[in-house]
Write a structure and sequence with these properties.
The chain has 138 residues and is α/β, with parallel strands linked by helices. The chain contains 5 helices and 5 strands; from the N terminus they run E-H-E-H-E-H-E-H-E-H. It is globular.
Length: 138
């Protein structure tokens, strides 16, 4: 008589939630971004103005910020520069996003201290790549 081995499958450990802040003045992009990032097991906060961004950062320290370059009241690359100059927020990775030509977005990154960029729209592939890079760095 042969013995049969029984393996009890353990549930996979759930990946740690990544806290994400999306800054964009387009309500549709914020809604889609929230849905996309939530499906990737992220905790999502959104802001559509620099004032909302400032208020959000009082209560949340995100693991990463996805920042639109062309906000109505201020340029996202300028906000990135300000955040990178402050002790509390300087180590938060910032990814610029825009519908500008790639070379124009890429040119903004070194001057503002952002950690990367991509062209809109937010896609699972682009967002996943940015999240993997942030996780690998930590």
């Amino acid at each position: 008589m042969s013995q049969q081995e029984t393996f009890i499958e353990q549930p996979a450990a759930k990946a740690a939630l990544i806290s994400v802040l999306i800054v964009d003045d387009n309500p549709l992009l914020l809604k889609l971004g929230r849905a996309l990032l939530s499906s990737l097991n992220c905790s999502v906060t959104t802001a559509s103005t620099w004032i909302e961004l400032s208020e959000s950062l009082k209560s949340v320290t995100p693991d990463i910020i996805f920042m639109d370059v062309n906000l109505q009241s201020v340029k996202g690359n300028r906000l990135a520069e300000v955040l990178k100059s402050q002790t509390r927020t300087r180590n938060i990775p910032i990814i610029l996003m825009s519908d500008m030509p790639e070379k124009d977005i890429e040119a903004l990154v070194p001057g503002c201290g952002a950690n990367g960029w991509f062209q809109k729209p937010l896609t699972r592939e682009r967002v996943s790549k940015a999240l993997r890079q942030i996780q690998a760095a930590n």
